Amino acid sequence: MKKLIQLFYTNLFLTGRLFTALSVCVLLFLLAFFFPWFALIPKLVFWLLMLLIIIDIIMLYRTPNAVFAKRHAPERLSNSDDNELGIYIENRYPLNIKAGIIDEIPHQFQRRDVLFETTLKTGEHKLINYNLRPVKRGEYEFGSIRVFIQSALGLVSRRFNFEQAETLPVYPSFLQMRKYELMAISNRLNEIGVKKVRRLGQSLEFEQIKPYVPGDDVRTVNWKATARHGSLMTNFYTDEKSQPVYCVIDKSRAMKMPFEGLSLLDYAINASLVLSNIALLKQDKAGLITLSEKIGAVIPADRKHSQIQKILEVLYKEKTRYLESNMEALYTTIRKVLTQRSLIVFFTNFESMNALQRQLPFLKRIARYHLLLVVFFENTELKQLTEAPATDVEGIYTKTIAEKFVYEKKLIVRELAQHGIQSILSTPQELNVNTINKYLELKARQRI
């Protein structure tokens, strides 16, 4: 009995309408103090209000399990994307109600506005959808669902608690990966900025000999097969396949810098996942190496269907380190693991020429045996400073320094090109498209 009384009080809340009605009662009693003939009306109003409160409480508490609510959430969330969640609510009262629903979302979102208000008729149910956008990988703990119910009187509110604590993992952006995958399958990558690159020359991978049809290149006629069959036969070539494509991700302190809530490491991880999936769709092999002061994960390149899931599970756990990258360890690992010429896409960041010069000797050694593509980031905030007008001496100084750093990024691209190293200088937001464009370009030019 004591527990029931405690539950009654802890789940009973007074509404703003009740406080307004009480304020009216107070004003009426004040008027009765100055006008004695008016004394009966405040008492009648007060006791009528008390009666309505009792009726309202009876209406809300007479039905056990009068409301049901449940959270609908995916098994995992996609980092940096809008993930759709839903709350199912069902009215089991014999009357129409007004509901206020609070979902206890993880603290990482720092949101206090996940409150949904709706009305439900008798026996009606609804599904309320909302979006969450995580900006960090890891585990996110959801709490209970709190539902506050009011009747048509709206004087008091009854709270229902639905314990639905669950932990959802936030993985690298698999939603972006699926979007690019669907567009690659339907040949619509150009709709999101991926360029169509004209193939130069002809692939050297022979597939079969087939009968000649008008329009075939006469240079592919196989004269020996023609003599045997008595009709023109041509060699049929297809795109080169099974080329190893390795994404190497730098996890050093240079990748800690944030842009729009995400670190450079998260941008690199999302781009690596998208590129690996596109490479597998193009029948190439995808592999992964992570690097900080020591070598992290190493996934040899493969074309198996489970390869992208293996890469996803590894990328989910990666975190930024606070030391500088060990390029010597990277070079040793590449020489040991990569047994044939491969495309190596190295996601890193250089903020100055000095940072490049420390790593350049090892980059040149890697480029001697493999096709190396260095991907680093354009500082968009510095670019905004260079475009903003300077109004005083301090502004001129700030703008000059910003222009110096922006120009130094371009010098880094030029320095890498002088040593025969491909590079991409990209804003974090355009990293996926720029990386795919470069991969398709290198493939079309038969560099891999």
Write the layout of secondary structure elements.
Layout: H1 2-10, E1 12-14, H2 16-34, H3 40-61, E2 67-72, E3 77-78, E4 83-91, E5 97-103, E6 115-120, E7 125-132, E8 138-142, E9 145-150, E10 156-162, E11 166-171, H4 174-185, E12 205-211, H5 223-229, E13 233-238, E14 244-250, E15 258-259, E16 262-263, H6 264-281, E17 285-291, E18 295-302, H7 307-317, H8 327-337, E19 343-347, H9 353-369, E20 371-377, H10 380-387, H11 393-418, E21 422-426, H12 431-444
Parallel strand pairs: 3-11, 14-17, 14-19, 19-20, 20-21
Antiparallel strand pairs: 1-10, 2-4, 4-7, 5-6, 5-9, 8-11, 9-10, 12-13, 15-16, 17-18
Describe what is shown at a glance.
With 448 residues, the protein is of the alpha/beta class.
Structural summary, described in words:
The protein has 12 helices and 21 strands. The protein has 448 residues and is an alpha/beta fold. The protein folds into 3 domains: 105 residues, Immunoglobulins (Immunoglobulin-like), CATH 2.60.40; 213 residues, 3-Layer(aba) Sandwich (Rossmann fold); 34 residues, no CATH class. The strands form 6 sheets. A 6-stranded mixed sheet has the order 18-17-14-19-20-21, sandwiched between helices. Strands 1-10-9-5-6 form a 5-stranded antiparallel sheet. The protein has a 3-stranded antiparallel sheet with strand order 2-4-7, with no helix packed on it. Helix 4 packs parallel to helix 6. The longest helix has 26 residues. The termini are far apart. The relative contact order is 0.09.
